[in-house]
Design goal:
The strands form two sheets. Strands 3-2-1-4-5-8-9-10-11 form a nine-stranded mixed beta sheet, sandwiched between helices. Strands 6-7 form a two-stranded antiparallel ribbon. The chain has ten helices and eleven strands. The protein binds 3-hydroxy-5-(hydroxymethyl)-2-methylisonicotinaldehyde (PXL).
C-alpha cells in the first residue's frame, strides 16, 4: 500500500461542502470536488439543489433539495462522523440556511473550521432568484458561527450595509487612502459578527483586482493583475483552494495568494482558448499544478 500511495499513508482531512450541483457551467460542487481532492482533502458534499446548469444561462432545470437535506444529514448523524472543516455556499431559501446552521451545530468539533461563502451576489447585484432579505439570514445564522468568511465585495456590502457604489468611486481614485479606510471599517464591522479570518475578494481597480485578507488584527491588501473576463464558478474554486489549504496548515495570506494565482491562470487560459464566459474556467488542464507546493512560483 505504501508504494502505491507514494509512501503517503496519512488520512486526509475531511471537508463537508454545502453547495448546489450544477451539471453544466463549471461551478459549485462540480468544481469544489475535484479542487479539494487535488489538494489532498476529502470532500463530502451536501447538495442544496441539483441544476442542469447555473443561473447565469438564460434558463435552467432545477430540483430543489430542501426537503431532502434533513434526512440526508440525519443519515450522516447515524454514522458517528465528524469534519475538520465545513464550507457553506450556494443556498436559496431561509430554510436551507437554517438547515446549514443546524448542520454546523451538529457536526462542529472543537477545532472545526467553519468557512462561510455567502454565494448570493456579484457585480453589485443579487444572483437571480435571491430576495433582498437573504443577506440578513446569512449574516444572523451563518456569519456569526463562522471562523472564516469569504464574501466578494458585493456580498460584503450587502452583509454590512456599506455602499457598493462608494467602493467603486473610491477604487477609481488615484490614491488608495479612502478605499483602504472604507474597507478597514467594513472589515471591522464583519469582525464584530464573529469570524477571525475574513477574505473580501474582487475589488476592481483599473486593470487590477484587490483581495483583502484580515487575519486576527492584521489587514492586508493583495493586488494582482486582472487576467481576463470575470467568469462564474471562480468564487467556488477560490473558496475550495483557501479552505483546503487552511486545513493543510497554510497561512490565510498564502492560501489566498495561491487561490488568486490559480484562478487568474484559469481565466487567462480560458480567454485564450475562447471558452464562452458562461462555461466558467478551464481548470482541468492545470488541476495537477495545485498539488505542487511550488505552484505560487510557476505562473
Ligand atoms: O458560482 C456561483 C453559483 C453557484 N450555483 C448556482 C449559480 C451560481 C452563480 O450564478 O447560479 C446555481
Amino acid at each position: 500500500m505504501a508504494d502505491i500511495a507514494g509512501g503517503d499513508i496519512s488520512i486526509p482531512k475531511k471537508l463537508a461542502v454545502i453547495n448546489d450541483l450544477s451539471g453544466y457551467g463549471r461551478c459549485s460542487l462540480c468544481v469544489s470536488i475535484p479542487v479539494i481532492s487535488a489538494l489532498g482533502v476529502q470532500c463530502c458534499p451536501v447538495p442544496t439543489a441539483v441544476l442542469s446548469n447555473h443561473t447565469g444561462f438564460p434558463s435552467e432545470y432545477k430540483f430543489d433539495m430542501t426537503r431532502q437535506m434533513r434526512p440526508y444529514i440525519e443519515a450522516w448523524s447515524q454514522l458517528d462522523i465528524g469534519f475538520d472543516g465545513i464550507i457553506t455556499a450556494y443556498m436559496n431559501y431561509e430554510e436551507q440556511v437554517k438547515i446549514a446552521a443546524d448542520f454546523i451545530d451538529r457536526f462542529r468539533q472543537k477545532d472545526t473550521m467553519v468557512f462561510v461563502d455567502p454565494a448570493m451576489a456579484d457585480h453589485g447585484r443579487l444572483y437571480r432568484g435571491f430576495t433582498d432579505d437573504y443577506a440578513g439570514y446569512i449574516r444572523d445564522r451563518l456569519i456569526r458561527q463562522a471562523t472564516v468568511i469569504k464574501p466578494n465585495i458585493t456580498e460584503a456590502c450587502l452583509l454590512t450595509g456599506f455602499d457598493y457604489d462608494r467602493v467603486k468611486l473610491y477604487a477609481a481614485e488615484p490614491k488608495l487612502k479612502r478605499l483602504k479606510a472604507y474597507i478597514h471599517d467594513m472589515v471591522g464591522e464583519l469582525r464584530e459578527l464573529g469570524p477571525d479570518k475574513i477574505v473580501i475578494t474582487g475589488i476592481e481597480r483599473n486593470d487590477r483586482i484587490i483581495n483583502v485578507v484580515a487575519d486576527g488584527s492584521s489587514v492586508s491588501f493583495i493586488s494582482g493583475r486582472r487576467s481576463g473576463h470575470s467568469r462564474g464558478g471562480t468564487g467556488d474554486i477560490f473558496s475550495s483552494i483557501v479552505a483546503a489549504s487552511l486545513l493543510q496548515g497554510m497561512s490565510l495570506e498564502r492560501a489566498v495568494r495561491k487561490a488568486a494565482d490559480f484562478v487568474s491562470m484559469a481565466i487567462r487560459i480560458s480567454d485564450e482558448a475562447g471558452v464562452p464566459v458562461n462555461e466558467g474556467v478551464i481548470f482541468e488542464n492545470i488541476l495537477s499544478k495545485l498539488a505542487s507546493t511550488s505552484f505560487e512560483h510557476c505562473k
